[in-house]
Amino acid sequence: MFNYFEYFLNTMAKKALIVGTGLAGLSTALRLTSKGYEVEMVEKYHQPGGRLNLLEKDGFKFDMAPTFFSMSYEFKELADYCNIPMPFEFVELDPLYAVHFEGDKRSYLIYKDLKKLAEEFADLEVDLEEKLRRFLKSAGEIFHDTENIVIKQNFDSLIGYLLKLTRVPVKHAPKMFYSMWKEMEKNFDSFEVKVIFSLVGFFLGSTPFDTPAVYSMLNYTELVHDGYHNVKGGMYKIVEGVVKELEKRNVRMHFNVEIDQFEQRNGTLSAFTDKSGKRWEADVFVVNADAASFRGQVLQRPKFNTEKLDAKKWTLAPLTIYLGLDTKVKGMYHHNYFLRRNFEEYAHKIFKNSIKLDKPYYYVNIQSMHNPDYAPPGKESVFILCPVPDLRYKPNWDDAESIADAIIQDMSKRTGFDFVAHTETRVVYHPQQWEGMFNLYRGSGLGLAHDLNQVGGFRPSNKDEQLDNLYYTGASTVPGTGLPMTVISSRLVTERILKDHGTLS
Ligand SMILES: Cc1cc2nc3c(=O)[nH]c(=O)nc-3n(C[C@H](O)[C@H](O)[C@H](O)COP(=O)(O)OP(=O)(O)OC[C@H]3O[C@@H](n4cnc5c(N)ncnc54)[C@H](O)[C@@H]3O)c2cc1C
């Protein structure tokens, strides 16, 4: 019999409270409002964006963390899903980035055009174009054979996940059992080529020596599939664009609000409480804070207590440096990696802080090169990211400024440009600060790593195990970290919510 009462309840606007305004939280808000939900958001930081944030100082602007992204079509999917025009404009990077090795006078430019790329390494690697085509063909097959089966899926159980995996063609199976570095050795001869194409292993939170070869699919996404993109006007335009849409939809955002307690009744979450004691009620709750540490620290789940969280694999922590220079930099590209020749030693020792940090590996982005309004005329805004051990292995960061000094001196020596003399303003954020700003567990920059036992059905689920109206979105739940993944995460959690609570419009 038609139940009018149930129909009436289901057609009333349901309220969703989202904890966190990172990209995953903002995208989830956009999707849920498109389906008729009323959304309210609370955020610990003083402005939206989470790690995708903006720092402004002395007339300079800096993208605080992400500086480029792959799989740009996921943003288009978000806009289409919500029936809005693209809220920002992206620009494809070409060359993708430049790599400098210590002791080498030249830098290597990484192009998507494989012919040009092969010419760049002509003196180091014979037949590189042919070798790359072979390597990328196999990497591309892995990507397309897993994208819809594993990456863009919700899993209700571990068995369900393992069953899904059986649909991946068996020919890829061996690559789960040997490393990305071995895959490089099988395909290439030169040290430089092997190191450059295995850097993606670090993005996943491990080393190329521990990361399974299946993840070479990331080389396919960077070199063939969709490349890397920037945003016209700076990365924070993504946040500004989405927030503008949310304002039109009357989404209320409350900043400097940190959730630290909860109330439940009969297996349902009735309210979150913030540090000032204010209660936040809703019908549905979505947590954009780290899906593993929130379960432990706020929900007090024994499976996510400190000991268990510390036993998980986490991605490296960031030490970030923001420099406002009084002149333009010469001889550098937009995206630059500074590497050394002790690659294997570095990879094995960096995670556990058993290597000296005065000779680090780092990434440099000249932010005002493509976004002139990031610096006053004739000046430059520069971002440096040095991956460092997290707070489990290096809890004390009193030496952060001196590590930053060493990096800047090293960069000056290697580029012949005196960054120290030209610095007008400088900010350094170390892992303790990153932890404090956004509740990043132990300061880990990208969240949970992507070892095979921490992905898919093994990753903290986006649906809570105990409370039936509590969900998660973001880097440490499915599918994983990075900007496009968090946009996919917002779709997966929205699908769950709509399945459980209904589409309202
Ligand atoms: C230095 C660095 C560089 C990076 N570079 C890139 C890059 O170039 N390309 C790329 O694709 N990705 C990059 N990433 C990764 C990318 O930033 C993240 O994967 C993505 O931004 C995560 O988004 P999110 O929404 O899951 O989480 P977040 O951005 O962390 O958002 C979560 C939000 O929840 C808030 N919050 C947490 N706990 C609470 C609480 N208890 N109460 C209220 N609010 C709370 C936090 O303050 C935060 O705003 C980088 C990350 C770092 C750190």
Automatic annotation (TrEMBL):
<dbReference type="InterPro" id="IPR036188">
    <property type="entry name" value="FAD/NAD-bd_sf"/>
</dbReference>
<dbReference type="InterPro" id="IPR002937">
    <property type="entry name" value="Amino_oxidase"/>
</dbReference>
<dbReference type="GO" id="GO:0016491">
    <property type="term" value="F:oxidoreductase activity"/>
</dbReference>
<comment type="similarity">
    <text>Belongs to the carotenoid/retinoid oxidoreductase family.</text>
</comment>
<dbReference type="GO" id="GO:0016117">
    <property type="term" value="P:carotenoid biosynthetic process"/>
</dbReference>
<dbReference type="Pfam" id="PF01593">
    <property type="entry name" value="Amino_oxidase"/>
</dbReference>
<keyword id="KW-0125">Carotenoid biosynthesis</keyword>
<comment type="pathway">
    <text>Carotenoid biosynthesis.</text>
</comment>
<feature type="domain" description="Amine oxidase">
    <location>
        <begin position="23"/>
        <end position="498"/>
    </location>
</feature>
<keyword id="KW-0560">Oxidoreductase</keyword>
<protein>
    <submittedName>
        <fullName>Phytoene desaturase</fullName>
    </submittedName>
</protein>
<dbReference type="InterPro" id="IPR014105">
    <property type="entry name" value="Carotenoid/retinoid_OxRdtase"/>
</dbReference>
